[in-house]
Amino acid sequence: MRLGVCYYPEQWQESQWLQDAQMMRELGLRIVRIGVFTWTKLEPKPGIYEWDWFDKVISIFEKVGLQVVIATPTAAPPAWLIYQHPEILPVDENGNRWKFGSGFHFCPNSPVYKTYVEKIVTALGKRYGENATIIGWQIDNSFGSSHSTSCYCEGCDVAFQNWLKEGYETIEQLNDAWGTIYLNQTYTSWEEVHIPNPKNKNKNPSHQLDYFRFSSFILQNYASYQIDTLKNLTKNQFVTHNFSYQDQNLDIPKLSKFLDFVSWNSSPTGYAETLASLLYMPGEKTPDLAYEVGDPYITGFFHAWTRGMCVEPFWVMEQQIGQIDWGKVNPGIRPGTIRLWTWHAVANGAEAVLYQRWRATRYGSGQFQSAFLRHDGSFDLGYAELSSMKPEAPVMTQLKDEAIKSTVAILVNYEDMWALDFQPHNDQINYQRLLFNYYRALSRLGVSVDLVPSDKDLTEYRLVVAPILYLTDQEMVARLEAYVARGGAIVFGPRSGFKTDTNLVSEKSLPGALRSLVGGWVSDWQSLPDDVNFPFRSDIHGLRGEAGNWIEAIHPDENEGVKILARYLGGPLAGSAAITEHVYGAGVTYYIGFNAKNEQIKQILGYLVSEICNENVLDLPDGVVVNQRGNHRIAFNFTRNEKTIVLDDKMTTIPPRDFRFFLRDWS
To answer: Where are the domains positioned within the chain?
Structure first.
């Protein structure tokens, strides 16, 4: 386990570099990331490179014993490149071409841009690919943040047509796959097919889905271009990327397969401020958290999401250490917050945490972001806090080789996310909200859970949760059937199996291709207003209340031995099954026919984890989370008041904004 920092030496006088490096080392930092926005500094004119300053700063880091991660500078093309090739700039959904001066101002599909990217990345790889001080590379910067994956330029339009040709071969196959007979949208040639116009009404959801697939593919192709170049030129150096989850239009698992490991940018207060309304159910009371620590369920949700995208431990490449500048309020922090965030990342499986940033910048849009050093060079709160954490470094190091071994997984499918966003049918239904609802329920139970791609081998998990498996194909269904037949357990949420992989409604009785697994069929479904709920009765201990938002009537197939765990008592579906259990081979499946509230999900999953995983579940107060890494358990209190919990039959009191560390032989 290592700590590091993001540094921007190009913004500071050369005379400051050595002192900064020495201070970093004294503070306990061991890794420095550089290079993110340095293209013009490295290549002031086409093909003219200035390496002296970069060589010098790297040699300084080597001298004081710091390791270096170089970020390729391709997230911000130089002004000279845009001046010579304005066609590199992306076009937005309104048909307006971007202008220079924002960062992330390029179309990833541009062949001209990729030529220049290859040149700068090749030059960097040749010069530093065998430098022992350089331990790895971050390609580009923060896909899913300020950078949009969607471009509407003519080049992308033609590329979209060619991509469709490769996938469908004939225009007739495309028409069938998209159901273009509806609204007379049938095409007679490839030239008639264009990128969907966001302003059009009654857009074809199959057309939209393929455009999102195409856009994600283009960015993956752009990224793999850099990955391949660096892997061919480097020795004993990793390649990663620091993802952001503000824009979910990139299929991260598909890109992650080409990386050595995955990284992400963690900004707890920013994510809490901007995503809470998206992730929590409407009208749901949010936890009474300390305002400046963020939301541990939201932060933990994306830690688990990142961890599940690849088999290796992940990095936090940019960890917030104070005020940010892109949230709603952007609060400052109090003593203990950075320590809390760092240990929370470690407890969730992070192998390294790099703080953003060393010095507060005086320039541009980042002027109000906190750093270890303020604008005048004085110590900010984070400096003193990290200094006080130095005695804890050996314990962090001890955790480096400890793995998180979850027995529960939540399935993530980006194509399901996109398709549901196109047609939520109820404006309170959101894919990420559904996943988060299940994640938070498990977190409140103290259960470790991985968020994993839907094509992952599930053998290691006892219980798999699919809050909504919206799109299905034969390969996916066969894989899930084999998993359950061997003894696995799957929980399906409502609307699972509704669509084919081209986003057409299944021609089979719902849940479509999943019917044999579920052991029943859905006859009716209702989308309900917020204030309409209907009672149900359940055999699951503690499960009570009413069903709302979305309800389905489940009918068990005859001779399948399906057990009904809950029935509707009122409303249009009264008497119908609301939750079912079906033994399939050596395993079992569950179907929940309504969008359950968080407390209801907690009761359902608490019952299933106890029955299937043979794990004792906890009853944690809101704002308290418990993570296990190897033989270590860490209990965190993200509230403003001390909390008492029972852990291993012992009462433990945790001060506000603090945590307690436990070691136990769990073998």
So the answer is: 2-149+219-399, 154-205, 408-612, 624-663
Are residues 615 and 446 in contact, defined by beta-carbon separation less than 8 angstroms? no
Report how many helices (DSSP H) and strands (DSSP E) the chain contains, helices first. Answer: 19, 27
Q: For strand 563-568 and strand 577-584, is the pairing parallel, antiparallel, or unpaired?
A: antiparallel
Residue reference for tokens 């570099």: 17
What CATH number belongs to 408-612?
3.40.50.880
Within its chain, how far is the Cα of 29 from the centroid? Answer: 26
CA atoms within 13 A on the CB side of 350: 28
| Structure-block tokens of residue 614 | 């043979």
Residue-level length of the chain: 667
The sign one gets for the Cα dihedral 39, 219, 275, 33 is negative
Q: Are 358 and 4 in contact (CB under 8 A)?
A: no
**Rounded distance, CA 624 to CA 646, Å?**
12
- With beta carbons less than 8 A apart as the criterion, state whether 634 and 660 touch: yes
Identify which of 147, 175, 133 has the alpha carbon closest to the alpha carbon of residue 76. 147
Q: Is the CB of residue 276 less than 8 Å from the CB of residue 258?
A: no
Superfamily designation of domain 2-149+219-399 = Glycosidases (3.20.20.80)
Beta bridge partners of 591: 492, 580
- Tell me the pairing of strands 489-492 and 587-592: parallel
Neighbours of 536 (CB within 10 A): 26
- Residue 442 near residue 450 (C-beta atoms within 8 A): no
In whole angstroms, give the CA distance from residue 112 to residue 389.
Answer: 48
Distance from CA of residue 194 to its chain's centroid?
30
Measured CA to CA in angstroms, residue 340 lies from 242, 300, 322, 346 at distances of 21, 12, 13, 10
Chain segment 105-127, per-residue pLDDT in tens: 899 999 999 999 999 999 999 99
217: nearest Cα among 153, 167, 142 = 167
Contact (CB, 8 A) for 592 and 538 = no
Q: How far apart are CA 188 and CA 174, in angstroms?
A: 10
Residue 146 has pLDDT above 70, yes or no: no
Q: Average pLDDT in the 265-287 region?
A: 89
Separation between Cα atoms, residue 300 and residue 210, nearest integer Å? 31
What is d(CA 576, CA 566) in angstroms, rounded to the nearest whole number?
9
Coil, helix or strand at residue 130: coil
Q: Which residue, among 304, 348, 393, has the nearest Cα to 627 in the 3D structure?
A: 348
- Check residue 666 and give its pLDDT: 40
Nearest CA-CA partner of 204 in 508, 506, 503, 420: 503
With vertex at residue 465, the alpha carbon angle to CA 449 and CA 500, rounded to the nearest 5 degrees, is 135
Contact between 472 and 500 under an 8 Å Cβ cutoff? The reply is yes
Contacts of 128 (CB under 8 A, 6+ apart): 58, 70, 134
Residue 252 confidence (pLDDT): 94
Least confident window among 105-119, 320-334, 536-550: 320-334
How many other C-beta atoms can be found within 10 angstroms of the C-beta atom of residue 589?
Answer: 26
Calculate the dihedral angle through the C-alpha atoms of 634, 640, 646, 650, rounding to the nearest 10 degrees: 80
Cα 110 from Cα 81, distance rounded (Å): 13
